[in-house]
């Protein structure tokens, strides 16, 4: 399965970058939320 090999060869730095993007988006969403 070529798709599995490609996915398996994705560097950890790429996945950690994705995690940083996900967390920063959550932080922005929380910051934009009106405080009550």
UniProtKB/TrEMBL annotation:
Name of the protein in question: Uncharacterized protein
């Amino acid at each position: 399965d070529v798709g599995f090999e490609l996915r398996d060869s994705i560097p950890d730095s790429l996945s950690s970058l994705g995690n940083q993007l996900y967390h920063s988006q959550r932080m922005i969403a929380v910051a934009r939320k009106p405080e009550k």
